[in-house]
Amino acid sequence: QVQLVESGGGLVQPGGSLRLSCAASGFTLDSYAIGWFRQAPGKEREGVSCISSSDETTNYVDSVKGRFTISRDNAKNTVYLQMNSLKPEDTAVYFCSGRGSWGQGTQVTVSS
Fold it and tell me: Which residues are 98's β-sheet partners?
């Protein structure tokens, strides 16, 4: 059974950091491009970052460039999203997606 499970969300103050994890089961993550997405209340889901399956090329939406880093640990079959210098506008439910599957999401709240 193909499954993606996100974790690592929480409440953090502006300027703080979180690392999100996307653990896969039922397939090998490094064979697929994996993306992180987020959806804030009342807004459409947007792509945040992705990592390719082949040369691990990474891409980021402009609003997170220089603050977020996507990476892959093949031994753990997990993709991470390191989020630094968090802003209130980063508040959203974060999802990972790959191989046509979506995780259940993890809530990130940036607030003082």
Answer: 101
